[in-house]
Design a protein that fits this description.
Elements: E1 11-15, H1 19-31, E2 35-39, H2 42-51, E3 56-60, H3 68-78, E4 88-92, H4 97-106, E5 110-113, H5 118-128, H6 133-137
Parallel strand pairs: 1-2, 1-3, 3-4, 4-5
Helix pairs in contact: 2-3
């Protein structure tokens, strides 16, 4: 008997400048059925976003050159006026109140600390994939 995978058919854009973290995110999400596009920079991620519609974005915050805040701002600008609004998860080594508040204010719906808890990440992606564009636009977060 085959167990269904909770993230089957979910398209995720994963962005992190650390090859090890990007590989970990990709493995966790693919193990649960997601189709993951892995990018090591904001510029690469924006190029992929211009080609494909994703269900969820998972992005590191602290990256060289352009950070996760710049990515989510660019995504929100790209989707301005569109019914589709992609939910986004911030991943950071900083989990203090100020860091979380900044993530939410910049357009992320969730702020996760490193190291990543696999079950928590999968459960959050499951919830986020169900959000409609209006909930994202209105600043839904938790």
């Amino acid at each position: 008997m085959e167990t269904s995978k909770p993230l089957a058919d979910v398209k995720i854009l994963a962005v992190d400048d650390s090859p090890d973290m990007l590989m970990l995110l990709t493995r966790i999400l693919e193990k649960h059925g997601a189709a993951v596009t892995a990018c090591s920079s904001v510029d690469d991620a924006l190029e992929r976003l211009s080609e494909t519609k994703f269900d969820v974005i998972v992005s590191d915050i602290a990256m060289p050159e352009r950070d996760g805040f710049e990515l989510v701002k660019a995504v929100r600008d790209m989707e301005s006026g569109s019914e589709h609004q992609t939910p986004a998860i911030a991943v950071s080594g900083h989990i203090d109140f100020e860091s979380r508040t900044r993530s939410y204010g910049q357009g992320f719906q969730v702020h996760l600390g490193k190291p990543i808890n696999q079950k928590h990440l999968v459960a959050i992606v499951e919830r986020l994939k169900e959000l409609d564009g209006e909930a994202v636009r209105q600043g839904f977060n938790w």
